[in-house]
């Protein structure tokens, strides 16, 4: 009987020792699993956090490489280079530059070309009535939700949800922080109230981000930050008079239509037509610029030259091969063709607008008369 008891104790002892060793192994596996789970969770959270910072806080998608910012094609005659060098000179002197001039004179292309020469990233912003302070600076856009899982205890899962506001930086904040060149196109079309935030940027070198929570509500302006504004002359529709306090902190460079040779080079860079056709179109637009009460810019000459390239082979019966819509233009001679094309190009400036020209027929008549003279 004693022997049986001793045998049973020994068996039970081996079992206890085996159970303890199994429990130790199980604990070790659980500890290893928890460690791996914690490492993975931290890694994923950090990755998400970094991704959120890049995609929402930094707004790096606004940044344009200077090589990509330069307009293509861009004609650089002596006249163009002189104005561009004047702009870059003021930028080197740490002065904001305001390009002012008629529509279609190439202000935006000139601003982008000047910005690209600095070798710094470029940020482009377009002004209109809808632009307010948040459109320039940034704002909160919904929220971001994260979930953390705690499975330290086998069979028990604990979830914790973390929600935080999602801030999106807009063009001004990105340019100020990264030392980019901000090209603010059609600056005077925006409401002046939206531009109050620019006063501290240009004067104190600090950008306040209204509505931003936390300690990073303001941004110190990067020493390489520069800004180029472009605006049409004040007599154009939809143009706002900006506050004197802001205008006093920038220099104004007038951009007018270039000389005839420069305009011919610009048109030639955009349209593949004969030199004779380019000269005819440019001479016609420059004459109409002086005679008509509507804006006849360099862009008008480019579009008209494109029209000539399409309709020059018109035979009166079929649409030119390049015409995808099958449209027709009835012409009797070169002057009539040019008058028709220029009427099409300038027509939107007359139709539905208050001008001294009473409709499309009157526009065509005046253009034909000018061309005959």
TrEMBL record:
<dbReference type="GO" id="GO:0005737">
    <property type="term" value="C:cytoplasm"/>
</dbReference>
<dbReference type="GO" id="GO:0031412">
    <property type="term" value="P:gas vesicle organization"/>
</dbReference>
<keyword id="KW-0304">Gas vesicle</keyword>
<dbReference type="GO" id="GO:0031411">
    <property type="term" value="C:gas vesicle"/>
</dbReference>
<dbReference type="InterPro" id="IPR027417">
    <property type="entry name" value="P-loop_NTPase"/>
</dbReference>
<dbReference type="InterPro" id="IPR050764">
    <property type="entry name" value="CbbQ/NirQ/NorQ/GpvN"/>
</dbReference>
<feature type="domain" description="AAA+ ATPase">
    <location>
        <begin position="93"/>
        <end position="261"/>
    </location>
</feature>
<dbReference type="GO" id="GO:0005524">
    <property type="term" value="F:ATP binding"/>
</dbReference>
<dbReference type="Pfam" id="PF07728">
    <property type="entry name" value="AAA_5"/>
</dbReference>
<dbReference type="InterPro" id="IPR011704">
    <property type="entry name" value="ATPase_dyneun-rel_AAA"/>
</dbReference>
<protein>
    <submittedName>
        <fullName>Gas vesicle protein GvpN</fullName>
    </submittedName>
</protein>
<keyword id="KW-0547">Nucleotide-binding</keyword>
<comment type="similarity">
    <text>Belongs to the CbbQ/NirQ/NorQ/GpvN family.</text>
</comment>
<feature type="compositionally biased region" description="Basic residues">
    <location>
        <begin position="23"/>
        <end position="33"/>
    </location>
</feature>
<keyword id="KW-0963">Cytoplasm</keyword>
<dbReference type="InterPro" id="IPR003593">
    <property type="entry name" value="AAA+_ATPase"/>
</dbReference>
<feature type="region of interest" description="Disordered">
    <location>
        <begin position="1"/>
        <end position="71"/>
    </location>
</feature>
<dbReference type="GO" id="GO:0016887">
    <property type="term" value="F:ATP hydrolysis activity"/>
</dbReference>
<keyword id="KW-0067">ATP-binding</keyword>
<dbReference type="InterPro" id="IPR013462">
    <property type="entry name" value="Gas-vesicle_GvpN"/>
</dbReference>
<keyword id="KW-0378">Hydrolase</keyword>
